[in-house]
Amino acid sequence: MWSSDVLKISARVVGDRGELRALNPIMPSSYTESVRSANSKRLERFTRRASYAYQLDAFAAAVVRGETVKTRPEDAVENMTAIDAMYRAAGLLLREPS
C-alpha cells in the first residue's frame, strides 16, 4: 500500500481537431490541463476551489433563492441505470435500496 506515487490518474481525449490531456480529471483543481489543436496549444489552470463548493452553491441557490436546478430528477435515474448496467457487465450484484 506504500508508494512514492500518491495518485496516478490521467485522461487523454483525441479528436479530429486536437486533443485534451488531463492529469487528474477527478480533481482538476490540483493540476494544469493542456488543450492542443493543429495550430495552437494552451494550458488551462483551474481555481483551487473544491468541486464540492460549487455543488453547495448550486444547492443553496435552489433552496434559498429558488433558482432553477441545472439537473433533472430523470438525470439521476439515467445515471443509476448506467451504473447498474456497469455492475451487471462486471458480474457484480446490484446495490439494494437502504
TrEMBL record:
<protein>
    <recommendedName>
        <fullName>Gfo/Idh/MocA-like oxidoreductase C-terminal domain-containing protein</fullName>
    </recommendedName>
</protein>
